[in-house]
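worker-3 :: picked Scavenger receptor cysteine-rich type 1 protein M130-like
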Amino acid sequence: MAFVRCVGSESTLKDCESAGWDRSFCEHSKDAGVICSEVRLIGGSRCSGRLEILHNQTWMSVCDAVFDQQDAEVVCRELDCGAPVQVLGAAAFDKGDAQMWTQEIQCRRNESQIHMCQTSFKFTPNYNCTHKNNVGLLCTGTCCLFQ
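worker-3 :: tokens ->
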């Protein structure tokens, strides 16, 4: 714990002004956090789990009807987890309780982040996107966490 003050030009957190990394006047109830990506995988490991996308400051589960292999390549790359091994549907990593993202994601594989992909509302209107249809993802980085 440490009191840290950054001005924005620092390349790492260590370059920010601080009272010292072992000196603090804060309790853990005042800890700060940072979101580095607008996607996350929940219920597995860092590189596997139920896919959620941050939209308007709300984490949303992704419907398996609106997600494909090209989209998976972008997510695995964004999370620095290698390549996709498998895209899973039917709530393979639990149903979760986040709102559902129902827009079709249309990545071209060259995007570095999922929010750079186009989205649209054109998917089969009869498809029911519920928590039973959350998409799960396994990336190659999953194997490396257990070695």
